[in-house]
Specification:
An eight-stranded mixed β-sheet has the order 3-2-1-4-5-6-12-9, with helices on both faces. Strands 7-8 form a two-stranded antiparallel sheet. By secondary structure, it is of the alpha/beta class. It has one domain: Alpha-Beta Complex (Inosine-uridine Nucleoside N-ribohydrolase, Chain A), CATH 3.90.245. The longest helix has 20 residues. The structure holds alpha-D-ribofuranose and calcium ion.
Amino acid sequence: MSKIPVIVDCDPGHDDMMALVIACCSPELDVKLVTTVAGNKPLELVTRNALNVMHYIGADHIPLAEGCDRPIVRPKDHVIPKLAEFRRHTDSIENGAHGASGLDGFTFPENNPKKPIGIRAVEAMANVLRESEQKVTIIPLGPLTNVALLLRCYPHLISKIEKISLMGGSSEFVFTRPFMEFNTFVDPEATKIVFESGVPIIMYGYDVTYTVLYDQSVIDRIASHDNQTSYMVSQLLKAFMYRHNGAFKWLGLTDTCPIHDACAVAGVVDPSLITQSRYLHVDIETGGDFLNGATVCDYANTTHLKPNVQVVYRMDNERFFDLMERCSAGGK
Ligand code: RIB
Ligand code: CA
């Protein structure tokens, strides 16, 4: 079976780290490029984190290109006031779910030799699409800024995209920011461009990611393998469980935790992991005060518009955690 060519766009982040390990250590995938986008943390930090993870797991051969340091339309810090307000009432942990570094919980070796390539993410993505004999799957794990600009700058290359398997959105109320999740909240306009592009989209939103919750037994299984990738993964999963559940205390999670981004990669490695999904027309709110970035799902087909998204609701959790363990153990 030929490998699936993919591009991973990320903003590490603990769950991005897990997604990168699965992507880079799965024999089913051929990771052509990793790109970074400002989201969980500013661009400089998420890029440093991605480079550290890739070098540490032995993925130096995969190029990394830096992308956008802010949303397409909204100001760089548009998220902060709303999030600051939101988090004044929720965060009981300084620096939020990912910590000050964006990957608190593990110290990577200094002087990482892996550096970003000399061109920006959008151009690097276009080069991969242009040069690939097969259609390429794009896996966005942060705000959709880079992907939206790719679609706008290179419309003639859209036909080279197989599908977009993204972590983002939420069809049901989950947070006090109803209907939407962080990635779509950061760059609503980019999200709208991607969802209106006509490219097949598989959406792994909070609907599914808050049902795929790892626990200490998963951490222990990963830690039981004697290699540096497993150790790094187990340490960061442990840290993320503490930080995420402390930052969002009101979710009531104590000894389980989501690993959002890993779902979007796992579904590309093995689509049979998806056990429940619906094809719906999904539109994106960009003009409100409180719901910007909301993924509005037309459950009852009241718009009579053609479905543009496969919304994932459930995955086979046990086989998903097996994949997490297998890839962590298979790393360097
Ligand atoms: O809402 C979860 C998403 O926001 C994940 O991609 C996480 O890494 C953050 O980017
Ligand atoms: Ca992310």
